[in-house]
Structures are given as C-alpha cells and as structure tokens.
C-alpha cells in the first residue's frame, strides 16, 4: 500500500502566485468594463439632455415675434395687472432679447445668458366699438372673439397704434359659441400706481380698431436647482419662466445645463441675409434687436457626478478653458432662424 503525499510548500506558493495573477487579470478586466460602462452612461446622459435642451429651445425660438403687429415704444406699454412680472415685461415689444448675467440675485447664474421671447396668439380679437377700459374699478370688457390664450389668471394686452394696457383676466371667459366675449379684471388685481406714459390711467379710451392680444412671454435661463449630484456637486438646470401667467411661473426644463451663451445673427437694413453675429451686449448697444434674424445657442452640459477619465478633460466654452473637476462636459450648439424675421 503506497503512502499518500500532499503538495510541497513550493508547489503551493507557485499555485497561489498563478491564482493571484489570474485574479488580478480578471479584476482588471472588471474594473475596465466598469469604467467603460460609467463613461458610456455619462456620455449617453449628456447626449440625451443636450439634444433635448437644444430641440426645446429651437422650438421656442422659431416663432418669436409672430403676430406682434405694431411695435410700441416701451413707455407706451402700461402694465396695470398686479402680481405679475412687470419688470420682466420691459422688453416685451421685442420678439427676442437677451443679456449676460453679471451679478448674483438676477434671474440666472452669473456668467450665463438670459433669453427672453415674445409671441402673441394673433387670433384676431378686437375690443368692441366704443368700449372704455377702467382699470380702477371692477370691470368687464367686451371683445369680438375668443382666443385660446384668454385664460383665467393670464395676462392680455389691449392695444391700438398709440398705446397698450396689460390686464389680468380674473374670470373664465366662455369659449363656446361666437360673438361677444367678456373679459373681467377685478380692481384688486390692478396697480393704481402703474406708469402709463403719456396717457391717463383712468377711463382709457382706445382708437378703433383696438386689438385684444393674448401673448406668450417667456424667459429662459440657467440656475442652480438646489440639489447635489452623487459626488456633492451643485446641480444646474435650464429653466423657463412664463411671465404671461399671473403670477409668473418658473419651471425646470432639463438638468445638467451648466451654462448657456447666445449670439445673434443680425441683418443690415433691407437685407435678406445675416451680415454678422453679435453678443447680446453688442446688439443692445447698437439697438439692433429688430434686425435679429437668427440665434446661435451654445450649451455647456455636465455629467451627474464624476466620470472615469474626465479629470483630465480639456474643454473650451465660448473661447475660455473650463476647469476640470472630474465631471464629463460637452458643448452643444445650434443655429435657429426666426420664422417671422426671414425677409
């Protein structure tokens, strides 16, 4: 009967070394696959959010200024509806307007652009002949047609070729049938201290035909959400603020938008095509908002948390280097033509 022999110490050590090598190789493959998955997941999330943000903004920008008709000087627009956003309606006679945020406390993060768009419903409603608007008392005004934008707690503009008054609709206008439609505006929703330019605040008479315009006035901006990502970094998002709703309402559109910059394609007088691209400050300084034909949008998107390899990522946004912090970033850009401004 033969005696049984076990492994020698050398054989055990060799086997352990081989096992460690195989385990290390398997672990390396696992880590590599995990990093690849995290990288692809972060990239896919950036692509999804970036494309959605551009498509959303493009759809909102294209109709800017549609149905505006006569453009009035800002001092001729009298905002009497309280609880609204009177300060945010200052540029509503422009189809499009923007500014770079330079100080805390503004609507949007410092260094980002704020973009304002105005569209009216252009549905052809008019003030009935001889109607007088009395903002100082509870009143009903009669209009010739119902427009979808004539909703309770929405703002509407009554305007002729000289002036415009913005009131808050406090009733629920009847959408059924045809003929005269009544819009109510309670005295408590009107600002008696409103500045109305060169016309009297009380008993405002309009020159026939006076249009009654429902409108969409929106502001797009980038701001902190107040949330943190998985690594404790502050999360920013693209927001839209509807200032034609009373009171104005802000809503988050998509997260991961770290910054937004804009440039505007400006056409020369009586020109068909865009002659140059200008920043918001340059357009403002030259008073060229009426000549804007296209808008270039640049979005800096950032991942939700750190991504493998992103700690050394070199990226530029609007000509400036962006400091790497371990999160993946990508710039998304598009150019949008204003439909009603193509000559």
Automatic annotation (TrEMBL):
Pfam families: N_methyl, PilW. The keyword Membrane applies. Keywords: Membrane, Transmembrane, Transmembrane helix. SUPFAM superfamilies: Pili subunits (SSF54523). It comes from the Bacteria. NCBIfam families: IV_pilin_GFxxxE. This is PilW family protein. It comes from Pseudomonas zhanjiangensis.
């Amino acid at each position: 009967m033969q005696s049984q022999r076990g492994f020698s110490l050398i054989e055990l050590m060799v086997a352990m070394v081989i096992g460690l090598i195989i385990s290390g190789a398997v672990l390396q493959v696992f880590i590599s696959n995990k990093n690849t998955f995290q990288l692809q997941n972060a990239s896919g999330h950036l692509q999804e959010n970036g494309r959605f943000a551009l498509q959303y903004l493009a759809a909102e920008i294209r109709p800017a200024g549609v149905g505006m008709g006569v453009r009035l000087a800002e001092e001729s627009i009298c905002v009497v509806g309280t609880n609204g956003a009177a300060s945010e309606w200052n540029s509503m006679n422009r189809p499009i307007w923007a500014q770079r945020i330079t100080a805390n406390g503004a609507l949007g993060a410092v260094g980002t652009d704020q973009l304002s768009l105005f569209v009216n419903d252009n549905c052809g409603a008019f003030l009935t002949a001889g109607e007088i608007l009395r903002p100082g008392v509870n009143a009903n005004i009669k209009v010739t047609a119902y427009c979808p934008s004539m909703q309770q707690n929405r703002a509407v503009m009554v305007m002729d070729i000289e002036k415009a008054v913005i009131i808050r609709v406090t009733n629920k206008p009847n959408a059924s049938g045809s003929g005269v439609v009544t819009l109510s505006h309670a005295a408590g929703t009107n600002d008696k201290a409103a500045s109305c330019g060169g016309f009297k605040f009380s008993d405002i008479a309009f020159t026939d035909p006076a249009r009654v315009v429902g409108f969409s006035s929106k502001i797009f901006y980038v701001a902190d959400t107040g949330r943190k990502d998985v690594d404790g970094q502050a999360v920013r998002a693209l927001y839209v603020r509807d200032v034609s709703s009373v009171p104005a309402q802000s809503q988050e559109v998509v997260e991961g938008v770290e910054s937004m910059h804009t440039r505007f394609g400006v056409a020369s007088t009586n020109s068909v095509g865009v002659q140059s691209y200008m920043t918001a400050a340059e357009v403002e300084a030259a008073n060229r908002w009426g000549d804007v034909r296209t808008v270039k949008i640049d979005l800096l998107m950032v991942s939700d948390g750190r991504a493998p390899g992103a700690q050394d990522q070199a990226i530029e946004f609007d000509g400036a280097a962006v400091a790497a912090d371990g999160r993946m970033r990508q710039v998304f850009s598009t150019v949008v033509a204003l439909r009603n401004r193509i000559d």
